[in-house]
């Protein structure tokens, strides 16, 4: 069993990969139940498909924090890192598709005297 972690925005995922029949469980639920949106399912499955491991590994993931998009990105990174640990030869193809790079963009903090991080209150001359 291989254990790795992935992060995206405020989400942290821990993936456990072992030989099996292609079952993906996220927080104890099937992937298509946890991520009902097809684009999120595709994001999670992308590293598995590129590695050609669709029906060869079982994946169990614990993910916490963030929103749906951040969690899908964190799960994808964790799975990609675990697959590379199990088979070093797929590193090149996963790296080409950007699946082994952590997306370091975080939410910018809100500044005092402004409406949001960059948006300001409306200026009134008079």
How would you portray this structure in words?
By secondary structure, the protein is an alpha+beta fold. It has one domain: Ribosomal Protein S5, domain 2, CATH 3.30.230.10. It is built from 4 helices and 5 strands, in the order E-E-E-E-H-H-E-H-H. It has helices at 31-34, 38-51, 68-86, 91-96; strands at 2-8, 11-19, 24-26, 29-30, 57-64. The protein has a 5-stranded mixed sheet with strand order 1-2-5-3-4. Helix 2 (38-51) packs parallel to helix 3. The termini are far apart. The mean pLDDT is 94.
A few lines on this structure:
This protein is of the alpha+beta class and 126 residues long. It has helices at 31-34, 38-51, 68-86, 91-96; strands at residues 2-8, 11-19, 24-26, 29-30, 57-64. The model has no long low-confidence stretch (mean pLDDT 94).
How many alpha or pi helices? 4
Question: Rough shape?
Answer: elongated
What is the CATH C level class, in words? Alpha Beta
Given helix and strand content, the structural type is alpha+beta
- Total domains: 1
The average pLDDT value, as a whole number, equals: 94
**DSSP helix fraction:** 25-40%
Largest sheet: 5 strands, mixed
CATH architecture, by name, is 2-Layer Sandwich
Strand order of the largest sheet: 1-2-5-3-4
* Proportion of beta-strand residues: 15-25%
Distance between the termini: 68 Å
**Poorly predicted segments:** none
Q: Tell me the Rg in angstroms.
A: 18 Å
Oligomer: single chain
- CATH fold field value: Ribosomal Protein S5, domain 2
Number of strands: 5
Write the element-wise H/E pattern from the N-terminal end onward.
Answer: EEEEHHEHH
């Amino acid at each position: 069993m291989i254990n790795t972690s992935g992060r995206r925005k405020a989400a942290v995922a821990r993936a456990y990969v072992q030989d099996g029949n292609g079952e993906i469980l996220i927080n104890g639920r099937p992937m298509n139940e946890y991520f009902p949106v097809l684009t999120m399912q595709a994001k999670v499955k992308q590293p598995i498909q590129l590695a050609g491991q669709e029906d060869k590994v079982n994946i169990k993931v614990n993910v916490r924090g963030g929103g749906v998009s951040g969690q899908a990105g964190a799960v994808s990174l964790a799975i990609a890192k675990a697959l590379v640990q199990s088979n070093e030869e797929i590193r090149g193809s996963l790296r080409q598709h950007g699946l082994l790079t952590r997306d370091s963009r975080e939410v910018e903090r809100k500044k005092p005297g402004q409406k949001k991080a960059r948006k300001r209150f409306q200026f009134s001359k008079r």
